[in-house]
Automatic annotation (TrEMBL):
Signal peptide coordinates: none
Family of the protein in this entry: Belongs to the 4-toluene sulfonate uptake permease (TSUP) (TC 2.A.102) family.
Provenance organism: Muricoccus roseus
Lineage of the organism: Bacteria, Pseudomonadati, Pseudomonadota, Alphaproteobacteria, Acetobacterales
GO CC annotation terms, alphabetical: plasma membrane
Protein name: Probable membrane transporter protein
Length: 258
């Protein structure tokens, strides 16, 4: 056996590394195509092979580094007016979401989130779209919902995704705007993990080891987007629907004592 004593303590076993590699690569590929979804896919799957808090830290760190590297290009194509107000609302509401989580039972919160996701899917699938760009109030309202989702379940994506899919923007603008939004969101979530001591040398080592997979998968996903960008909306809607179903299932299972 090779001497691994130089590694930080608490590293995953060699048997867990294979699934982790596959999960990170697939999640990065999906992120590169859609502009979102890395944590939505990676965290639940990584939690099957790693302790949940380590799974969250690994996903947040990779999302942060990947987002920072994509930020220069994405910032040129994104719709900055909406991104600014969306981020403002999210930053204001995240603490409120955390307070709600302390008051509302976790499974009831999951059902509320699932209902909101499901309503967004039904509205968007029916063809709902803004015919012109909404005002600052509506954009900040979507950001507030994202912040509440983040505080309640560390999942700011569904409201932001539903908002951007309803805008009169091109798929390239939607994808770039989501990438910028999640890059800044990852900064906030990683800072929170550092503050509570959940992001130390072990997490840094895992993030750096996974970075080539994150970059390679994202680049391949971006290539697929350029070749099949027309499928962006359908793939995004299907993912939002899946998030709603999985979240509802977890909430119902918890309430029933499963």
């Amino acid at each position: 056996m090779p001497d691994l004593s130089f590694l930080p303590p608490g590293m995953p076993s060699l048997g867990a590394l294979g699934p982790v590699v596959a999960i990170v690569a697939f999640s990065a590929l999906f992120r590169g195509f859609t502009g979102f979804g890395f944590a939505i896919i990676a965290v639940p799957l990584l939690s099957l092979a790693l302790p949940p808090l380590l799974a969250v830290a690994l996903a947040a760190g990779l999302q942060l580094l990947g987002g920072l590297m994509d930020l220069p290009q994405a910032s040129r194509a994104c719709h900055w007016p909406s991104v600014r107000w969306l981020l403002a609302g999210a930053l204001l509401a995240s603490p409120l979401g955390t307070l709600l989580l302390a008051w509302l039972p976790a499974d009831a919160a999951r059902l509320a989130l699932a209902a909101a996701c499901g309503a967004a899917v039904l509205a968007l699938a029916s063809g709902f779209r803004f015919h012109r760009m909404p005002g600052r109030g509506a954009t900040m309202g979507a950001g507030v919902l994202s912040g509440l989702f983040n505080g309640l379940a560390a999942m700011p994506g569904p409201p932001a995704l539903a908002y951007y899919l309803a805008l009169p923007l091109t798929p390239a603008q939607v994808r770039a705007s989501l990438m910028v939004f999640f890059a800044f969101s990852a900064m906030a979530s990683t800072a929170s993990l550092v503050a509570i001591g959940a992001f130390a040398w072990r997490e840094v080592a895992l993030v750096l080891a996974g970075l080539p997979l994150m970059l390679g998968g994202s680049r391949l996903g971006a290539l697929l987007f350029r070749r099949a960008g027309g499928a962006h909306r359908n793939v995004s809607l299907a993912t939002l629907a899946l998030v709603a179903l999985v979240t509802a299932a977890r909430g119902i299972s918890g309430l029933l004592g499963g």
